[in-house]
Amino acid sequence: MARPRSEDKRNALLAAAVRVFAEDGINAPTARIAKVAGVAEGTLFTYFSNKDELLNHLYMEIKRELREAMLSTYPRAADIKQRASHVWREYVDWGLVNIDKRKVVAQLAVSDRITDDTRAVASAGFAEFQSMLQESMAKGLLREHPPAYVGAILVAIAEATMDFMLKEPAAADQYRAAGFETFWRAVASD
Predict the structure, then answer these.
(1) How far apart are CA 127 and CA 151, in angstroms?
(2) What angle do CA 38, 30, 34 make, to 5 degrees?
(3) Distance CA 174, CA 80 (A)
(4) Region 101-130: what's the mean pLDDT?
(5) What is the spatial distance between Cα 146 and Cα 151, in angstroms, rounded to a whole number?
(6) Which one-letter DSSP state was computed for residue 3?
(7) How far apart are CA 63 and CA 55, in angstroms?
(8) Ramachandran region of residue 38, left (φ > 0), alpha (ψ -120 to 50) or beta?
(9) Measured in whole angstroms, how far is the alpha carbon of residue 45 from the centre of its chain?
(10) Where is the HTH tetR-type domain (predicted)?
(11) Cβ atoms within 10 A of the Cβ of 57, count?
């Protein structure tokens, strides 16, 4: 009889994958992930049938965590700029704390090993924010761009902002504010 899977081992494998992929890229060997997790390589394949399944699962997990950070306290009744500022602030705060996950999700986002289904499910988690963007565009509050494009602008500017905040912590507040204002000017219709 097969041994039951352990949530602790699964989590250890995912944490090890983040560490290894952040250090060596997503082409790092699964043997290294297993070693960092403190398990046999075969154990990794008890939880994930192959490396692509691990990559897709990891992408979903990081996106789920990011969504919860950005949207769990989302101010639904606030005006558009306040809601956008909230999403910005939570994304930047998450990224500053989760540097390795930021590196890994950036690699996974451009990898052809992440399936279209995985991308669609991960994107669906941000549907509320995307709906807000579409409604705001319809009302003329935002420039008419596809929500995915607005999201890409947010990510690009936020990534640059986080990099500068990490390099110059004394100026972090100024970079955070300047980054949001740059994003807002890029998407707001006023």
Answers:
(1) 12
(2) 5
(3) 22
(4) 92
(5) 9
(6) P
(7) 12
(8) left
(9) 25
(10) 7-66
(11) 17
C-beta separation of 55 from 65 below 8 A: no
- Residue 1: pLDDT band (50, 70, 90) is very low
| Chain length of the chain | 190
The alpha carbon of residue 47 and the mean position of all alpha carbons in its chain are separated, in whole angstroms, by: 22
pTM: 0.89
Tokens describing residue 188: 């707001």
Tokens, residue 147: 């929500």
Residue among 148, 139, 154, 128 nearest 75 (CA): 128
Contacts for 21 with CB less than 8 Å, ≥ 6 apart = 28, 58, 103, 104, 107
Cα–Cα distance for residue pair 12/62, rounded to 1 Å = 14
For each of the domains in the chain, give its residue range(s) and CATH number, in order of start: 1-49 (1.10.10.60), 59-187 (1.10.357.10)
Q: Determine the Cα–Cα distance for residues 150 and 156; give it in Å rounded to an integer.
A: 10
Q: Which residue has the tokens 């046999």?
A: 40
Predicted confidence (pLDDT) per residue in 150-187, tens digit? 889 999 999 999 999 999 999 999 999 999 999 999 99
Closest by CA position to 24, among listed 103, 110, 114, 111: 103
